[in-house]
Design brief:
Length: 119
């Protein structure tokens, strides 16, 4: 019998993915040999409080976003920090990168990959 993973995103704790972010996450997961699975965790940032780190696979944690064939997991202890954020991807001939888009009470740095929440 094959083990199944919980891919249900908890209500009220979701991170939104733009179509561009979902497509790039799918591409990276497939290249890494873990189709459909990516992991996001937050590290202490330099320009803002938190910086995102994305890695292929399901390293541990809870599903925080699912769109267009990709499920993004994050540590359960970081769910509240991710709530209400949107992950986007912008690419051009010079390269590309993931950007955190925010709502009220969230400040993104100029690079777009780090953010802080108001107290």
């Amino acid at each position: 019998m094959k083990a199944t993973r919980n891919t249900t995103v908890p209500r009220g704790h979701s991170l939104r993915l733009t179509p561009a972010a979902a497509a790039e996450l799918c591409r990276q997961a497939a290249v890494a040999g873990t189709p459909g699975l990516m992991h996001l965790d937050l590290l202490e940032g330099a320009c803002e409080a938190w910086a995102i780190r994305l890695r292929p696979g399901h390293l541990a944690g809870t599903p925080v976003a699912r769109a267009d064939g990709i499920t993004l997991h994050a540590p359960a202890g970081q769910l509240l920090l991710l709530r209400g954020l949107q992950l986007d991807y912008k690419g051009d001939l010079s390269g590309g990168g993931f950007l955190v888009r925010s709502g009220p009470g969230v400040h993104s740095c100029a690079c777009g990959a780090a953010f802080s929440r108001s107290a």
